[in-house]
From TrEMBL:
The name this protein goes by in its record: Aminotransferase class III
Keywords: Aminotransferase, Pyridoxal phosphate, Transferase
Annotated family: Belongs to the class-III pyridoxal-phosphate-dependent aminotransferase family.
UniProt GO molecular function: pyridoxal phosphate binding; transaminase activity
Statement: the UniProt record of this protein carries the keyword Secreted: no
Pfam families associated with the record: Aminotran_3
InterPro entries in UniProt: Aminotrans_3, Aminotrans_3_PPA_site, PyrdxlP-dep_Trfase, PyrdxlP-dep_Trfase_major, PyrdxlP-dep_Trfase_small
Length: 453
């Protein structure tokens, strides 16, 4: 077939050729031809400490040499205990037990199942429906895909998806409920909240098991934080109708937004926090969930302490060793301080770029999870047609120039929203941010020339 690659690798796109990366140094990846790429999105917002950290590699190698695998139905390791304790202590006060998986999709899948088991065993057997949000991404397994709202990824699998419900998340810059920001906030009558209650009542509260949301919407919308007070209202609804509140921190966890978890900034205590990516800074497939004492007590009282679930690689010793070593580096490099300093610096530099390029209509985010919304013409609020693949093309130009970003499009219904996430490693310097902005600036100029042709 035309353009199909002739090698053995089955990637997402069988027609695409990608550079072969030989190694990485700090924020840079280097390919076999010696070309450098500034990793301005930490891969998939995962390589949060950059590349080539020897101490993490050595910890993994040492563990692999000692015991490469132990089955957590029979044995545990010291590193497993240490990492769970470290994460438990970073989390909100009543979230103490940590369950490990290999990826964020599995973490969310586990959280959805735990919510269901918790209700079933507590004598609420009907509770099984999950409410998610259209602008959220929670993963690619059937459960997590059903809970999320990635329309393009859901489309092919529609008959396989679970019958979960969805609401829109707040996006005051371009409200999906067509409310005016000032009117909405001053009246405190937020459609994005009343719609949740309406949905619960329509489904019947006795049927709803969990509500799942990202604290700051990542890949589906490009780093959109909620208006202050939104999650307090969500928490109230979940309490009122006995619904497990799952906050997906797979992208936001471990300092990305300037605090250990973004949950600290949204002012609530969830029932479950899921995490991934940053926990090992991308050095090993590691993710999981941190669970509220209330759910653990329920499991002990009603289920003899048994969660009916499990994975072969849960708590894998080498992955756990990577996690422990990564969290040590976060501490040593005082990453949280750096995010608090570099986040505002990056935002200011992007706001300067906004003055120059009318393709940028919004700069938003928290810490070093920053997004820009791309439009065809800011003055007339003219959106790109999805077929123009604006974000993807802009990123393609940037890659040629030596920096890689995280493009996204098609939030809500596949017709709205083009954005770029800028999320460099959390130990990025001022000079590296300047380079990111310079390459983005040049990319916009080339992009403009291409659009005119
Ligand atoms: N949840 C969020 C918020 C994510 O951003 C992602 C991945 O991008 C996932 C879940 C899925 O994680 P994974 O790809 O590790 O399965």
């Amino acid at each position: 077939m035309d353009g199909i690659k002739k090698d053995y690798v089955f990637h997402r796109d069988l027609k695409k050729e990608y550079p072969i990366i030989t190694h990485g140094v700090g924020v840079y990846l280097i390919d076999e031809n010696g070309k450098k790429y500034l990793d301005a999105c930490s891969g998939a917002v995962a390589a949060n400490l950059g590349h080539g950290i020897i101490s993490i590699g050595e910890s993994m190698a040492e563990q692999a040499k000692k015991a490469a695998f132990v089955h957590t139905m029979r044995f545990e390791t010291k590193a497993l205990h240490e990492l769970a304790e470290t994460i438990g202590k970073m989390a909100p006060i009543h979230l103490n037990k940590v369950y490990f998986t290999t990826g964020g999709s599995e973490a969310n899948e586990s959280a959805l199942k735990l919510a269901r088991q918790f209700h079933r065993d507590a004598g609420r057997p009907q509770k099984h429906i999950v409410i998610g949000r259209w602008q959220s991404y929670h993963g690619n397994t059937i459960g997590s895909l059903s809970a999320g709202g990635d329309v393009k990824r859901r489309h092919a699998y529609t008959p396989n998806l679970l019958n979960y419900a969805h609401v829109y998340s707040p996006y005051c810059h371009r409200c999906p409920y067509d409310r005016q920001k000032n009117d909405c906030l001053s009246k405190q009558n937020w459609t994005c909240v009343t719609d949740i209650e309406k949905t619960i009542l329509e489904l019947g509260p006795e049927n709803v098991s969990a509500f799942i949301a990202e604290p700051i919407v990542g890949s589906q919308q490009g780093a959109v934080p909620p208006p202050p007070g939104y999650f307090e209202k969500v928490r109230e609804l979940c309490d009122r109708y006995e619904i497990v509140l799952i906050i997906d921190e797979v992208m936001t966890g471990f300092g990305r937004t300037g605090t250990n978890f973004a949950t600290e900034q949204i002012g609530i205590e969830p029932d479950i926090i899921t995490f991934g990516k940053g926990v090992s800074a991308g050095y090993a497939p590691l993710a999981g969930m941190i669970v509220h004492d209330r759910l653990i007590d329920g499991l002990i009282q009603n289920s003899d302490g048994k969660f009916i679930h499990g994975y072969t690689y849960s708590g894998h010793p080498v992955a756990v060793a990577a996690g422990l070593a990564a969290l040590e580096v976060y501490e040593q490099e005082m990453v949280l301080e750096n995010v608090k300093k570099q986040g505002p610096y990056l935002v200011n530099r992007l706001l300067e770029l906004k003055q120059k390029h009318s393709y940028i209509s919004d700069v938003r985010g928290k810490g070093l999870l920053i997004g820009i919304e791309l439009v065809k013409d800011r003055k007339h609020d003219l959106l790109f047609d999805p077929s123009e693949k604006a974000a993807e093309r802009l990123n393609g130009i940037a890659i040629e120039l030596g920096a890689v970003f995280y493009p996204g499009s098609g939030a809500i219904d596949g017709t709205k929203g083009e954005h770029l996430i800028i999320s460099p490693p959390l130990n990025v310097t001022n000079t590296e941010i300047d380079e990111i902005v310079r390459i983005l600036d040049e990319s916009f100029t080339i992009f403009k020339g291409l659009l005119r042709k």
